Backbone:
């Protein structure tokens, strides 16, 4: 299956996006978005307080008002896996974006229209309209507000805690199981818990048990209600699954996580994700291209002059460290050296060097933000016009330059059109099955091809993906906030056909 912006069609797999509900892959339509603040409701005059001296009757009433807190702004809460936001109060208008279940936004006091929506479309901040009913509520006591209090943290390297499934893979429980129930679903439970346990999770902060799971209760649904009468297990994770967790908690000596798809998973069946520490290099007029990335784990920085009598080691270089260069290069016998911008030297061996633009594409103009991605170099450079502002290493399709290969990254010039704070990706292909929940900072630019963070590998600088452009979580988050379309705070996705340009070439 391949993601095609507005839906799925059969075909070779690039990065496949799908909502994963009940443990299975289910295609969904593209979710779309954009952003002008709503006016605050006028303050309500306070009631006169006992014991406060009153002014003469002839005095203007405004002088009698006591300071009060502003009236709370009316809110709208999303009650569906995806609550769409429209350009106008009509289902026939363009979709601007979406909210995730439990997310809230400021809304207008009155409905702005009722076209196809019995309860009415309400204007929301910073732009657009949401139909109240099956997808959203204006009830300040709606169950979703209490049952789903968690939000992705866009200020964090990863917006959730993540875990990768071990083997045997975990069941997806609908509630916290007893030991006997676990043993019935996990025949090797005693050996598994005794020898593996949930080590690695203990250094993380744990929450109180979610309210809906207390006293044998079930995990909530996206509308905030509980899964009454549901089977104990919805499904079992496939090998290589990745999960995002809304909450981590402990019950009866065992540690569990409530996943973003509202399943209860035993943490002793998962390995916690430690995000890659690799990150690219911001560029300025003083720190600019050329830049070398060190691809050796034994490289060193030298001080002195390779042409003179003294050249000594200054310090070891980190693997994948970014070193701005002056552009000077000298050859001494069989060895070549490149000068750094600060006058030191590095051996020109196992380096990836990103040079300044020699000839920009014809469509580049002053002020245009765009991304330049090289498949051979495995690099990405962010530009404004011809000025580079950021450089990093990426992982593109593992089929390299093979045009049309099953796992090749497409080449050409494209526009980012859809962005998700997180998005499920998976494939059921024979020998290629994978299930990765809430992949962070996803930016689709053509069919099933996207830029996104990767929490399941740390191979940036080498081809690795199914066709997408994999980025370290640090870099993916930076680019997500830098590119267009913008995703407003509190929204989960955005759509605009005229987003930032992506140029991919050999």
Residues:
């Amino acid at each position: 299956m391949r993601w095609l912006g507005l839906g799925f069609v059969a075909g070779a797999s690039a990065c496949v996006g799908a909502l994963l509900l009940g443990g299975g892959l289910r295609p969904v339509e593209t979710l779309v978005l954009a952003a002008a603040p709503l006016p605050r409701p006028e303050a309500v005059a306070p009631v006169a307080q006992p014991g406060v001296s009153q002014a003469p009757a002839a005095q203007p009433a405004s002088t009698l008002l006591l300071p009060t807190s502003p009236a709370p702004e009316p809110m709208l809460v999303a009650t569906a896996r995806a609550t769409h936001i429209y350009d106008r109060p009509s289902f026939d208008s363009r979709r601007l974006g979406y909210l995730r279940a439990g997310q809230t936004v400021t809304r207008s006091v009155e409905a702005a229209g009722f076209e196809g929506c019995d309860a009415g479309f309400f204007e929301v901040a910073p732009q657009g309209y949401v139909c109240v009913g099956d997808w959203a509520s204006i009830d300040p006591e709606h169950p979703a507000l209490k049952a789903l209090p968690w939000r992705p943290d866009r200020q964090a390297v990863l917006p959730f805690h993540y875990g990768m499934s071990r083997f045997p893979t975990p069941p997806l429980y609908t509630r916290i199981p007893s030991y006997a129930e676990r043993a019935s679903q996990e025949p090797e439970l005693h050996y598994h818990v005794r020898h593996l346990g949930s080590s690695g999770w203990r250094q993380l902060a744990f929450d109180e048990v979610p309210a809906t799971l207390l006293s044998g209760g079930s995990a909530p649904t996206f509308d905030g209600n509980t899964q009454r009468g549901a089977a104990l297990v919805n499904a079992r994770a496939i090998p290589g699954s990745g999960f995002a967790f809304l909450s981590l908690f402990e019950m009866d000596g065992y540690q569990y996580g409530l996943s973003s798809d509202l399943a209860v998973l035993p943490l002793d069946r998962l390995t916690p994700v430690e995000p890659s520490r690799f990150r690219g290099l911001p560029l300025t007029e003083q720190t600019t291209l050329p830049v070398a990335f060190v691809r050796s784990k034994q490289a060193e920085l030298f001080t002195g002059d390779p042409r003179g009598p003294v050249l000594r080691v200054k310090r070891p270089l980190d693997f994948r460290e970014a070193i701005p260069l002056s552009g000077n290069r000298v050859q001494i016998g069989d060895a070549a050296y490149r000068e750094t911008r600060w006058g030191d030297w590095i051996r020109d061996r196992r380096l990836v060097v990103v040079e300044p633009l020699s000839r920009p594409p014809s469509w580049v103009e002053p002020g245009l933000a765009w991304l330049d991605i090289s498949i051979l170099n495995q690099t990405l450079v962010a530009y404004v016009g011809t000025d580079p502002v950021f450089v990093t290493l990426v992982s593109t399709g593992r089929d390299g330059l093979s045009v049309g290969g099953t796992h090749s990254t497409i080449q050409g010039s494209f526009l980012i059109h859809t962005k998700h704070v997180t998005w499920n990706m998976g494939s059921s292909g024979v020998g290629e099955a994978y299930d990765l929940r809430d992949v962070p900072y996803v930016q689709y630019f053509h069919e099933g091809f996207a830029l996104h963070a990767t929490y399941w590998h740390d191979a940036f600088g080498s081809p690795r993906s199914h066709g997408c452009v994999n980025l370290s979580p640090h870099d993916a988050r930076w680019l997500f906030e830098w590119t267009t379309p913008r995703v407003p705070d509190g929204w989960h996705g955005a759509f605009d056909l005229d987003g930032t340009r992506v140029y991919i070439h050999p």
About this structure: The longest strand covers residues 434-446. The radius of gyration is 27 Å. Residues 1-13, 18-64 have pLDDT under 50 and may be disordered.
